């Protein structure tokens, strides 16, 4: 435990501050006795508390039939064709990484693009979904660029609602998890080189939608993580660990 006590102020005709003992004060001056002010001390006690931001990845929040419910949701390819979720990967044994982005933004899409070769080599289907129309998806595909064979549009946020992903002003701008975005400033700056506001949804309230990352093996949900705030994405290392490990014989 330590105490911090502020120094008492002194006056001098020079710019040098001298200790109080260097001055002699008259006992009385115009009826006023010099009084050394009593200043409070600040006591600091060490604390063992640690402040950390932990985003939980868990499948416990989802029902056992979530894959069936999600499978009935229709979204759109970048080319504008309607497709059901259940038709995007083999529902028996196929492995799929379903990444729901806030909108067709650049940063997460850039990371997914870099990860796609690893997913492909492991036989894992990448399903990247953004909020907006197929036209918005094509803007991302052309300007980032991003492969259209795994890019989908969910203009009405149906999949986001089924999965219970977070939505709102507080989550988007004021959640502590959103501070993580500043730790990746350089990568974000690089990813946004070709960014255009034209890729954002026409319904501007949709930018308040948060995303999430999910891993399925057939109909079984192996991994689920909801983004707590803007820029709070699932670590791809965790995803690789689940779906891209070389099986041990």
TrEMBL record:
Signal peptide positions (record): none
CDD domains according to UniProt: PRX_like2 (cd02970)
Domain of life (superkingdom): Eukaryota
InterPro entries given in the database record: PXL2A/B/C (IPR032801)
One Gene Ontology cellular component: chloroplast
Protein name from the UniProt record: Peroxiredoxin-like 2A/B/C
Species in which this protein is naturally found: Dillenia turbinata
